[in-house]
Each structure stands twice: as C-alpha cells, then as structure tokens.
Specification:
Elements: E1 2-5, E2 25-28, H1 37-41, E3 46-49, H2 56-59, E4 67-70, H3 80-86, E5 89-91, H4 98-113, H5 116-125, H6 127-131, E6 148-152, H7 156-167, E7 171-175, E8 184-185, H8 188-194, E9 197-200, H9 214-218, E10 225-228, H10 237-245, E11 251-254, E12 277-279, H11 288-306
Helix pairs in contact: 4-7
C-alpha cells in the first residue's frame, strides 16, 4: 500500500509521522502546489491531506486512490460529492482540537479585553520605568463579570468556550440551529445585538458563508469584541476590517482567513498592526497534543477503512 502525505508542513515539522510507515510505503511532501497535486498523488492508495484542494480536476486520474484522510474536522477543501461518485472514501477527524482552539479563542479575547499590547508596550518601551508612578491605568479596561458572551456555533469548541466564559462570570448566549439545555439559545441577530463578546465557531457551508455580513456587523455594540477561530468565509472580511478602522467595534481577533496566508492586498493587511487587533496564522488548532491526537485519528480512520469498518466517513453522511 502507498500513502501520500500532501502537505506535511501544515501539520508541523515536529510531528512524528512514523506510525504510518507500519501500513506501507509513505511518500511525504512538505507542500503541494495546485499544479502538483495529480503528480504527488500518483498511484497512491491513501492520501493524507490538510489544506490542499482536491476535486475532479486533480483526482480524475488517481485510479488507485481508495481513501482520503483529512487532517481536520472541516473538509471544504475536498469535493466530497465527486469522491463519492468515484467510490473514494473520505474521512475527517472530529473533535480533536476542541481544547486547543478554545484555549486560543479565550486567550485572544483576554488579550484584547485587557489591552495587553498597550500595557506591555509601556514596559518594553521604557515609558513605565520613566513615568515615576507605580501604575499606568490607561487605556481603561473592564472586567468580564456580567458581560454577555455570544457564541456563534455551539458544537464541541463553542461549548468549551462557553464553559470558560461562564467561569469568567459572563452570561452566555448561543446561536445554534438545534437548541439544547444548559445554554440560552437565540437567533443570530439577537446575539449580534446583545453581545459584548462574540466568538465564532461555526463550520463553513453555503448556509454560513458571509453569515456575519456588513449589516450584522453594523448592529454590533461599539464596545463589542469579535473573534473568529472558525473559517474565514463566515465573515465579510472587508466589512469587519472597515468596522475596526472606523471604530464601529472595539476590537477584533482572527486565526482564519478566506485566503491563507492572506496577501498584502487582503483587507486584513491594513489592520494587522493595530493594538486592538489580534491576528494569528491559523495556529489555534495546532497545540502539539491536538496534532498528535489528529494524526492518531487519521491512522485509525485509514485502518478502519481497510478492515471494512465505517469510521468518520464524510462521504457516507446523510444528504451527500
């Protein structure tokens, strides 16, 4: 059996992939450009992939390919319908990054709420040393106690963020298509208007693309902090960047972008240096423990497939 790993660097150069070698020949590519996909897949039986886009154009000649193992929960980079038509199994890894993404999400919120760029700037620049006062308390920051934390998407990650938000004293409301006990669920517009903190954890789909658009951003409190660790396409990126520059929202954080990495022409490039902005390079999912968990699950998905078992099969999902 031959296994092709298409974009090893997206998993981190420190991650040990040797377990895969127990199952056959493993060919590892640090990255695969779009015009290299067909060649890199070649005669592989299995493909391990994270970000590379796979569709009819580059899969049509992959005659040996039996299963694609996605190194993520989201799989919008794969044309699953085409794979199903070809009998190519597609597996994802749900839930592996819950703790990692929740940790980074809350860190971003606290970073922005507490104005840490400004305050650490005082000590780094020597302003604090030269000030002659024991304290510097500007800009003003506020406790989270009693604030409303709105969570868009209340799956595993959103629920974990909700637990932490409650521990910090926040009132938690959530936008979830199927309401559940234990959290106040509301529609997206009510959440947008009422929340002091808004964090986004909803998968990208045709229904959620542009969910937080210019009109909804305009309804946010001027004091609102918005953080996105879901998918870039859930937000109207130009609209949110304009809102930040015009002071229509207080602060913004993101770990995800519609084009990754974002380019110098991206609206994010114009706000990346602002103190009330926290942009990270799609790293929230990637604590070492989360990546190790993800890779173990990919191995288990592949092994289950060749044993004739059904495990994390996206292509068999209802409605596909």
């Amino acid at each position: 059996m031959k296994i092709a790993v298409l974009d090893r660097l997206t998993l981190g150069s420190d991650l040990d992939l040797s377990e895969a070698k127990k199952f056959g020949e493993v060919v590892i590519y640090d990255k695969t450009d779009i015009d290299e996909v067909e060649e890199h897949i070649g005669d592989a039986d299995v493909v391990f992939v994270n970000k590379v886009k796979l569709n009819e154009t580059n899969l049509k000649n992959a005659h040996n390919l039996k299963v694609i193992c996605e190194a993520a929960t989201g799989y919008d980079n794969i044309d699953v319908a085409y794979c199903k038509s070809r009998g190519i199994a597609v597996c994802n890894v749900p839930g592996y990054s819950v703790y990692s993404v929740a940790q980074v999400t809350v860190s971003m919120v606290l970073y922005l709420v507490n104005h840490l760029p400004e305050y650490t700037g005082y000590t780094k620049s020597g302003i604090y040393t030269d000030a002659g006062n024991a304290n510097i308390l500007s800009p003003v920051y506020h406790e989270l106690l009693g604030k409303t934390w709105g969570i868009v998407g209340y799956g595993g990650i959103g629920a974990r963020v909700g637990e932490i938000a409650k521990a910090l004293g926040c009132n938690v409301i959530a936008f979830k298509r199927t309401p559940i006990d234990g959290v106040q669920c509301t529609d997206i517009d009510t959440l947008i208007e009422k929340s002091d903190i808004i964090t986004v954890h909803i998968p990208l789909s045709d229904a959620t693309r542009g969910l937080i658009d210019k009109a909804r951003i305009s309804k946010m409190k001027k004091s609102a902090i918005l953080v996105n660790t879901a998918r870039g396409g859930v937000l109207d990126e130009a609209a949110v960047c304009s809102a930040v520059k015009e002071g229509k929202i207080a602060a913004f954080g993101s770990d995800v972008y519609s084009t990754e990495p974002f380019s110098v022409s991206s609206p994010y490039y114009s706000i990346k240096d602002l103190d009330n902005v926290c942009l990270t390079p799609h790293m929230a999912w990637g604590a070492l423990e989360a990546r190790q968990r993800c890779f173990r699950e990919m191995i288990d998905n592949m092994n289950a497939f060749f044993k004739g078992e059904t495990r994390n099969r996206i292509d068999l999902a209802e409605g596909m």
